[in-house]
Automatic annotation (TrEMBL):
InterPro entries noted in UniProt: tRNA_endonuc-like_dom_sf, tRNA_intron_Endo_cat-like_sf, tRNA_intron_Endonuc_cat-like, tRNA_intron_Endonuc_N, tRNA_splic
Family: Belongs to the tRNA-intron endonuclease family.
Protein name: tRNA-intron lyase
UniProt organism field: Marchantia polymorpha (Common liverwort)
Gene Ontology cellular component list: cytoplasm; tRNA-intron endonuclease complex
Pfam families membership: tRNA_int_endo, tRNA_int_endo_N
Positions of the tRNA intron endonuclease N-terminal domain: 41-127
GO molecular function: nucleic acid binding; tRNA-intron lyase activity
GO BP annotation list: tRNA processing; tRNA-type intron splice site recognition and cleavage
Domain named tRNA intron endonuclease catalytic: residues: 149-233
Amino acid sequence: MMGDSKERRVRWKGRHACETALSDPMSAIYSAIKAWTPPSGMFADSAVLLQVNSEQAQLLNRACFGRPYPPAIAPPPPSAPTYPPPIPGFDDSDSKEGLQFFQLALEEAFYLNYEMKCVRIYHQSHKEERVLLSHDELWRLMLKKKQHFVQHYKAYSHMRSKRWVVLSGIQFGADFMAYRHHPALVHSDYAVLVMLGEERQSRLNTWTELHAMGRLCGSVAKTLLLIYVKRKDAAVDSTFPSCLEDFDLETVEVNRWLPEKNREAGETLEENSELG
């Protein structure tokens, strides 16, 4: 999945970033999140607002799930990155019992609720009462809020299960960006596009589009990763999250072909060229 970490050069941020990442692995952070007392969240439009204490907020920040809400104006970046990055916009003294809010994207919220089973999510009923959502009810709400949510969540959960940090890729024209660890420590490796398998694609239909996306990724030192999510059966019922097992996933890295890196050792291009 997504390349061999031994072959791909990791672009760390700062002299001690690698040491920090090794001392605080994602698997340990995930274990701490699973062990906490599940906080409560409220489904709101196209996101979930999760109410957490300061310790839970730090864990979410270290694992890169969601972002503080409301967002604060970020201070000027320091000369060297710090870790864990401070959570802006909140002060425990300004909130009751140190409670804070985190805004989760749909994929993030469902992953924490369904895969990690570490958050409870409610919805406001017509009688203005909070109703605790089951996995199935939450799934159906998200299907209504985001087109192709099934395919996007399948790709997101696959990358998260491999302990990649997955963030929005909108600034690069992608669906997601994939990092080996916290973005304060490392640059992202992949710009990810979720492809709809056998369904009609709305992008990369022409060589021009593919070339443009490849050039964009090359200019910012990212690798374009296409994740194809395909139905095993045309009659898949997607109204339940159990349908995720009925989708296959295939990853394809899109790289430039460099002839000089594919020659026999000791030969130059001129010595073995038939083009004159």
